[in-house]
Amino acid sequence: MRHDRNGVKRIDLAEMQLASSETARIINRDIVLELIRASQPISRADLARLSGLGRSTISQIVEQLIDENWVREGAMGSLPRGRRPTLIGLNESLVAIAVDIHPRQASVALVDLNGRLLSRSPVPLTSDPAASMRLIIDCMQRMRNSAPQKSIEGIGFSLPGRVNPATQRLIFAPNLKWPEFDIKKMVEGEMGLPVIMENDATACLMAELTFARMDGVQDAVLVAVAEGVGTCVLTNGQLLSGHNGMAGEYGHVSVDPNGPRCGCGKNGCWELFSSSRAALRYYKELRPKGSIVAFQELLNLAEEGDAAAAQALNMQAAWIGRGLRIIIASVSPSTILIAGDLTSAWHRFGPVIEKEAADLTLAGSSPVIRPTHEGEIARLRGAAALVFQRGARRATSTPASANGTKSA
Length: 408
Description:
This protein has about 400 residues and is an alpha/beta fold.
C-alpha cells in the first residue's frame, strides 16, 4: 500500500508485502479488501490462499470489514465434500455520490463499491459557482432521497483544474472561469457528508487503478482530453501532487510562444492545439461555413466521410502525440493512458499519436499508449474511488465512528 501527499492509497497486488507487526494490520486489511473486490464472491479459505495469511487472521479481517460495512456474506459455495463455505463480496449498498464538472455542465451519479453507476443526471452550470453548486446540491439531494436503502459514504468531485491538497480549494481552472469559491465548505454544510475533490485526470487514473486492475504498473501518465487537457502522473507507484497540487500540469506548457492566447494567460499552451476545442477550431478554419458546435459531431462527420473533419482530427492527434514527447522526456512512463471522447475513434487517433510519440524514445522500448474507453464514466468512477479510499482509512483509524457520516 502506498500513499501520495493527498493520502490516496495505491495497493499493488503484484508486489504486496504482508507484514506481521501491529501496525501492519491496516496493510493486511486493505490487501484483503482489494482481493475481495478482484475475486468476489470468494471464500475465507481462498482469501487465505491468495494472500498468504493464516485462516484465523483472514477471519478476523473479514469480520472487521463486515462490521465496518464494507463487505457482506452472501451465497454458499460448493465443495466435493465437507462444510460448504460462505462466500464474501463487497457491500453493494455502500455508495458514493460522484460529481464530474465541465464548463457549462456537470454530471452527478450514484456509484457503488464495484464502480457501477446506479443513476446519473446532467446539471447545467452558470458562471456563478454558488448558483452552480446550488443546482448540483439539489440534484444530489434528489438522488439521495430516491435511494433511501443505500448508505452514502461521501461525495467526490472531478474538476477541470487543480485542487490544493492542503486546503481542498480549487486554485487553477482556466477553462471553468469561476472566481475563487469554497466548494467543499458549501457542499459539506448542505449535504452533511465529507467531500473529496480532485483534478479530472487524477480521477480518471484512480478509476483505472481501483477498478481496471493495473497491478504491476508503477510508472504511468493519464492524459484527459476534453475542453482542455489534464494530466496525472504515477511514478514509482505514487501519484505525484507537487507544490500546491500543481505537479504534471502539462496542458499549460507552451509549445508555441506565437500561438493563440490561453485561458491561463500564456500563449501557445499544449491544450490549445490538442484539446477537443482545438479540433473544432481546426475544422472551422478548414471549412469556415461549417456550423458544428460539439466534438461528437466532428467525430460523426469524419466517420461519414467529411474530409475536413478527418483532417481536423488528424491535426489534433498529431499535437497530442507531440505533447507526449514532453511527458516521455520528463517522467519516462511505461504506460500512457488517453481518456476522453476521442477514444471512441481510436482507429483514427491511435496510430498518429503513437507515431509522433515514438520519435522521442531515446533508449529502450516506447511506452505503451492505450485508450481508457470510458470518458465521463471514468471521471465519475474515479471521483467515487476517492471517497471509498478515504472512507476505508477513516474506518480503519476510527472504527467507533465508521457509520457516523453515512446517510442511510
